[in-house]
Amino acid sequence: MPPFPAPRMPPVTTPTPLTYRDAGVDIDAGNEVVERIKPLVKRTFRPEVMGGLGGFGALFNLSGKYREPVLVSGTDGVGTKLKLAQQLNRHDTIGIDLVGMCVNDVLVQGAEPLFFLDYFATGKLHVDTTVSVVGGIARGCELAGCALIGGETAEMPDMYPPGEYDLAGFTVGAVEKANLLDGAKVREGDVLLGIASSGPHSNGYSLVRRIYDRAGRPADLDLGGVKLVDALMAPTTLYVKPILELLGKHDLHAMAHITGGGLTENIIRVIPDGLGLDIEASAIVLPPVFEWLQREGAVPNPEMWRTFNCGVGFVLVLAPGDVAAVSADLQRLGLAHRAIGQVVKARGEERVHIG
User: Fold this and answer.
1) Residue 68: which residues within 8 A CB-CB, separation 6 or more?
2) Beta strands of 33-146 (E only): which ranges?
3) Which residues, at least 6 apart from 310, have a Cβ–Cβ distance to it below 8 Å?
4) Closest by Cα among 297, 305, 195 to 252
């Protein structure tokens, strides 16, 4: 019987060496981003920051600043305003929006924002774009007086389409326990003092972009001396420094940051049960960008009020007798404002009335 033939073995091949860069992650680009943002970040540091950028954890020394500190934290993004920023290739102010969405929230309870962390994620790291975005975050932190104490830049191939990135922010603030604003001071008859926004801030942009696209993307349309695209991309107003100054001088009963949910759903969050709001529709004077959005989108008033800030970015709740003094200080601080309503007894389940 003839012997069985020897089995045929496949030829031995050596696989082509692969690197992390071959897989789509450029460590060198990430290191370049870190080196370029270091001076931007350093400008935001406060005396309480311990160490520099690059550690595994960020250190902040709170000792000696407060007697009974209450920490107030907040996290947020900028929604689909990111899509518009990427579509327009305008990346330098979207970071200010990110900071504003977080620090204005913790400010509501009377807290001073102490430090901020950011998360930047993209499919492929473009150094100039990343530095521009983080530069905006650093600028926002400077304007708010908080330290950009750390963050994460993540390059994740196949997770995001080319040219797209995502942002998230996180902040920690502190307030003396005795000064915490929790709505307990709010009384029937209190006045709602609305402080002007810079535009839509970072809310309602899924509707904004739908209207903008349907109108043919008229970027250069003039709105009273401002191009439409500039009005839509105007960064969120940072209310921190002026409002902290007010808190040091006046007895404010409550505050509200007008974000997602608009005027209808945000102010009521700081009003105790049993009380409601009577907001004067005539006091809500729509700035040109909101007029354009409402007209082009045929958006009904109730939908405007629950989607956008409609020109009112922050609201103070205070006793009628304090309105004149607070108004004088707001004017001195350069914050346009007006009374937009008052606190009333709740009318059954309808706690917010705009009319």
Assistant:
1) 176, 177, 178
2) 49-50, 59-60, 69-76, 112-122
3) 262, 263, 284, 286, 290, 304
4) 195
Cα–Cα nearest to 238, from 119, 118, 165, 145 = 145
* Whole-structure pTM value: 0.91
Q: Can you list the alpha helix ranges (DSSP code H) found in 145-287?
A: 205-214, 228-233, 240-247, 262-266
Q: With contact defined as beta carbons under 8 Å apart, do 349 and 276 qualify?
A: no
What H or E segment, with its residue span, contains residue 329?
helix 323-332
Q: Dump the DSSP string for 159-189.
A: TS-TT-EEEEEEEEEEEEGGG---STT--TT
How many whole angstroms separate alpha carbon 52 and alpha carbon 38?
Answer: 9
Give the pLDDT band of residue 247 (cuts 50, 70, 90): very high
Identify the band that residue 114 occupies on the pLDDT scale cut at 50, 70 and 90: very high
Give Dmax over CA atoms of the chain in angstroms.
114
